Amino acid sequence: MQADTITEPPRPDGELNGHANGDAPSKSRVYDPKYFLSDRAKVAEIDGIRGLMAVEGPGVVSFVSYLPYELSGSQLTRQFPPLTARWPTQPHHIPFSSVTLTIKPPLVDATASPVPITIDGEDLDTALQYGPSAGLPKLRDWLEGLQSRVHKRGRGNWTISLGSGSQDLMFKGFMSLLNPGDPVLLETPLYAGALPALRQLDAELIEVDVDDQGLSPDNLERILSTWPEGKKRPRIIYTSPVGTNPSGCSAPRERKLAVLEVCKKYDVLIFEDDPYYYLAEQLIPSYFELETQVYPEGGHVLRFDSFSKLLSAGLRLGFATGPKEILHAIDVCTAGANLHTSSVSQAVVLALLQHWGLEGFLSHGHGVASLYAQRRAEFEAIAHKHLDGLATWVPPVAGMFLWVDMSPAGIKDSYDLIRHEALAKGVLGVPGMTFYPNGRKSPHVRLSFSIVDLVEDTELGFSRLADAIREKRKALGLE
């Protein structure tokens, strides 16, 4: 099956949406999200069997499917429109008749008892077969309702796609938006899991340093305003704006609006990786929510959410929200890579969400945020006890990390300290250089408080880290 040809708007200066490699962005143009797609994504389409699923329907005798009928009771009956292009096995051959889950109440409801719920019938049949690359329609609809409510965005020119965790979707997002060798703007320090796709693409990694409020619009403006003439301009910026891994920073509303204004000026799409969004006790307006205040048409933010921090990391389920054209390109990647995200995981999450309802999900998120806030307060108190005078950090309002800066103690390279003095004393953290795209030395160390024992191990660990810092100072001749 040949790939469809995508018709693009006129290119007044040789590039869709108004700027070629090194030209300044055009001030007047017709916006089309396809502008941000990579060359490959602009022409790639789902083909083969999955490409024919969309045209099966009433009145069409289909020989492309593995299964032209579905089982109803003890009889095989014809179904229109057929779901059969994704059903390679007769349903009565599948050795599962129902799945029963025992669902806990939302975390804030400590008095309620767990409740058993069952997935069976059509919902189970659907979960046990191949599914749409974008995800189960019922779950996507539920999540669209969530995004519409939480981010105050009416349903319209955006949609939802499911992935095997948000990192799977980010990987496919980068593949859909970047050509090999393209420059990409990266909030720095950044989540290291964003880097493998960029390195496969041999992308030019442009570091945009954060400050105490996260991604700095001033640093972003400085980089873009001094971009070399004639050099291909970056069209994407990656940021994780709430409880950032590793810095712990959270960008407030006004900061995000300032970043959006810079991105509008230079025609840059925001890649919003927000797995810790619900770990803030007070939800902070997202880029996805705020973008229509800067871009009335929307479509300039690609947002990634994860169930890993709220429900279960092992479910491997996340979802992307953004322009339909870009989400379609991600779905094409999914169709070619793994067909679709586990429908069983999707069905389990759907059953839970339907049982809890929207309010139950949001109250659970608040309960998880409160739990982490309590752990954070205890962890920080112990950190202050041992590290005051030796290190500083930005007190996080979300997430699960302290980004400890040891430069007040004269430490310039945390990697050397962690691998030698700290390890010898029996304490570990993640050296800061891990989170810098270009591997520069860093005086920081990332310390996670998500699961560490707060009674004994945290006290012992900070005591050992403080001793390691003092020992390093002596080795450096600073004491």
UniProtKB/TrEMBL annotation:
A single MF term (Gene Ontology): pyridoxal phosphate binding
A Pfam family: Aminotran_1_2
Ranges for region Disordered: 1-27
Keyword annotations of the record: Aminotransferase, Pyridoxal phosphate, Transferase
GO biological process: alpha-amino acid metabolic process
Nucleotide-binding is among the record's keywords: no
Annotated InterPro entries: Aminotransferase_I/II_large, Class-I_PLP-dep_aminotransf, PyrdxlP-dep_Trfase, PyrdxlP-dep_Trfase_major
Entry-linked SUPFAM superfamilies: PLP-dependent transferases
Cofactor(s) listed in the protein's UniProt record: pyridoxal 5'-phosphate
Domain Aminotransferase class I/classII large: 125-449
Family: Belongs to the class-I pyridoxal-phosphate-dependent aminotransferase family.
Protein name: Kynurenine/alpha-aminoadipate aminotransferase, mitochondrial
Protein's organism: Kwoniella newhampshirensis
